[in-house]
Amino acid sequence: MTLFRSLTPVLALALAVSAGHVPAALAQDGPLRITITDGVIEPLPFAVPDFVAENAGAEELARNIARVVAADLEGTGLFREIPAEAHISRVTSFDAAVSYADWKAINAQALITGAVSASGDRVSVKFRVFDVFSGQPLGEGLQFAGSAQGWRRMAHKVADQVYSRITGETGYFDSRVVYVSESGPKNARAKRLAIMDYDGANVQYLTDSSTIVIAPRFSPDGGRILYTSFQSGFPQVYEMDIGSVQSRALEEQPGTMTFAPRYAPDGGRIVFSLEQGGNTDIYAMDGQSGAATRLTSAPSIETAPSYSPDGSQIVFESDRSGTQQLYIMSAGGGEPVRISFGPGRYGTPVWSPRGDYIAFTKQHQGRFHIGVMRTDGSEERLLTASFLDEGPTWAPNGRVIMFTRQGAGATGEPALYSVDISGRNLRKVTSEGPASDPAWSPLLP
């Protein structure tokens, strides 16, 4: 058990421990405490009273926004909400003094208060975060404004700010996920692209189910999507503008198949796999000119490329050693270096946006796993184990991984799950029906 004096060190340590690092400098004496046992963090208790409605017509929005903020925080596994029925104090004015003794009495260590005003189609949300033990606010209050239809996004923005102030890390709630929505029997599965808020709300379908689509990937600015379509009868890479929902094929060479696309961090280059004459290699393309450069040349299958955050390297999977393994090469090509050496087969590597880890799918002894390793292949950790887990994608802050889990048996359906990079907090992600191939967006502008 370790003792701390303020909220920020508490969650900073929680995040560090879950990533495998415990900074001893954070340990201090004081009544605010968090228990650490075998890397499991005791969630920090917090309270979110219903936000204050500052004018008529804002009451429902005020309640709903507070509930989304609470759900965002509790969903991380780092926080535990104290239910409203346990509250002693009632917040009836945004500017009223905080009765810290009442919140201490119910063991609330963080208090989030807010107010909502509505005028026509416009909504304004303001909030404050308080460290109950120290009796001080954590930073200045902030305010967000927008349309009433965008109230959930304002709630996510509030939660991102709260998360950041307490943990010292960037939030990830104001983001979206593009995925493949599936329907129909397994022998005649219909697939279409869909996009939703990270928590499953606001689903929008981007394609119909007339053509099989797989492996969507966001551009760095979140405005475009790469994906693979079987519209022509064989796989081809397409790019879609999300705003107009218009698509174009990127590479249409007769006798070739293209797949596994991904953007470079600058958004101007695209890396993908191209199969021709029975050989599959990795190519990079200039997004404007369409000029393509071959990056690998080997009598083996090279696929699933992913850029490092600085764009200087690419991690990919290859069977050049005889089994599926992970390799890293320069973004311009050259001799790759193998980084996976454990038992089993490795695939679908994805570089963390923080640059510190690579997530992957691993198959070993009849089980599938989502795992992470350092970029040199060290410190491999398996986060999940299932009949079929595959296709990891990173949250914008590099703290959480979302992936596809396929149910076992003839009736098993695919669903989206998320897990912290420590392997804690495995959760099923809400979606409309069976879902697969998730890709997490960057934080929305």
The poorly predicted ranges are 1-38
Q: Please report the distance between the alpha carbons of the first and last residues.
A: 40 Å
Structural class label: mainly beta
Query: Portion of residues in helices?
Result: 10-25%
Strand tally is: 35
| Shape assignment | elongated
Biggest sheet layout: 7 strands, mixed
How much is the average pLDDT?
A: 90
Note the total helix count: 4
Beta content comes to: 35-45%
Radius of gyration over C-alpha positions, nearest whole angstrom: 23 Å
Account of the 3D structure:
The chain has 445 residues and is mainly beta. The protein contains four helices and 35 strands. Strand 27 and strand 28 form a beta hairpin. Helix 2 packs across helix 4. The longest helix is centred in the middle third of the chain and has 17 residues. It is elongated, with a radius of gyration of 23 Å. 45% of the residues are buried.
In short:
This protein has 445 residues and is mainly β. The protein is 11% helix and 43% strand.
List keywords for this structure.
four-stranded antiparallel β-sheet; mainly beta; 4 helices; disordered N terminus; 445 residues
Any chance you could write out the topology, listing elements then pairs?
Blueprint: E1 2-4, H1 7-18, E2 32-34, E3 36-37, E4 40-41, E5 44-47, E6 52-53, H2 59-74, E7 79-81, H3 100-105, E8 110-119, E9 122-131, E10 136-137, E11 142-147, H4 151-167, E12 176-183, E13 190-197, E14 204-205, E15 213-218, E16 224-229, E17 236-241, E18 246-249, E19 256-263, E20 269-276, E21 279-286, E22 292-294, E23 302-307, E24 313-318, E25 325-330, E26 333-338, E27 345-351, E28 357-364, E29 367-374, E30 381-382, E31 389-394, E32 400-406, E33 414-420, E34 427-428, E35 435-440
Parallel strand pairs: 5-7, 5-8, 6-8
Antiparallel strand pairs: 1-2, 3-4, 8-9, 9-10, 9-11, 12-13, 12-35, 13-14, 15-16, 16-17, 17-18, 19-20, 20-21, 21-22, 23-24, 24-25, 25-26, 27-28, 28-29, 29-30, 31-32, 32-33, 33-34
